[in-house]
User: Which sequence fits this backbone?
């Protein structure tokens, strides 16, 4: 079971944003982060807890291992307002967090 | 271009059946595990089912086990989801998704289709 916090947040362009994801048991570094915008499919941002997917801006970063993980967005840009989800790929079934909606302040 | 294109969704009555298809292109389909992930209106993502690259290993979320069947046809580069005994709580946008690393059924999903909507209603 994956628990994300907060469920939503308001931020301004240029802010630094941090989203956390907690696993109910250790998942090593098998944690992935996605961005989803309304009406579109999720897009993988980070895999293996901290590896940036090709083409993803470097303002996105991930950290953590075991049960506690963090997604950080440095200098939030207008195109970053979206929902962010974590997903564990340590075991079947692969499970997702409930999502964190990042809104414009 | 790597692409997944779903089809087959629609409106169906409770107890009915649908078969979803997902046409893959731009990558070696036979080398990757594939999955179906659904999203009910206004809700989060829920993994539904995965199949290994060879098709030999299949798994399902508990709520669909015994009602849904995943399969793949390598000759057609197509993934399928046969959905039987549909219920109202199966209403969702169904995405097919490609495993990131290869033949791992629990993996990051690096390529997603646009989704096909399934609505179960009288």
Assistant:
């Amino acid at each position: 079971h994956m628990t994300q916090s907060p469920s939503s947040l308001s931020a301004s362009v240029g802010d630094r944003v941090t989203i956390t994801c907690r696993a109910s048991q250790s998942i090593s570094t098998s944690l992935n982060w996605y961005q989803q915008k309304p009406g579109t499919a999720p897009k993988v941002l980070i895999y293996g807890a901290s590896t940036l997917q090709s083409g993803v801006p470097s303002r996105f970063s991930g950290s953590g291992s075991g049960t506690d993980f963090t997604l950080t967005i440095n200098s939030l840009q207008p195109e970053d307002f979206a929902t962010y989800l974590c997903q564990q790929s340590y075991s079947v079934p692969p499970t997702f967090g409930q999502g964190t909606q990042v809104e414009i302040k | 271009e790597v692409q997944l294109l779903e089809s087959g969704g629609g409106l169906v009555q409770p107890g009915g059946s649908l078969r979803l298809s997902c046409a893959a292109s731009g990558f070696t389909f036979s080398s990757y595990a594939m999955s179906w992930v659904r999203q009910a209106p206004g809700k989060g993502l829920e993994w539904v089912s995965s199949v290994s690259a060879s098709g030999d290993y299949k798994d399902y979320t508990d709520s669909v086990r015994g009602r849904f069947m995943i399969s793949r046809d390598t000759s057609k580069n197509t993934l399928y989801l046969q959905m039987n005994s549909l219920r109202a709580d199966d209403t969702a946008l169904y995405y097919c998704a490609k495993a990131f690393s290869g033949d791992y059924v629990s993996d990051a999903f690096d390529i997603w289709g646009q989704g096909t909507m399934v609505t179960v209603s009288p």
In short: DSSP finds no helices and eleven strands in chain B. The mean pLDDT of chain B is 96.
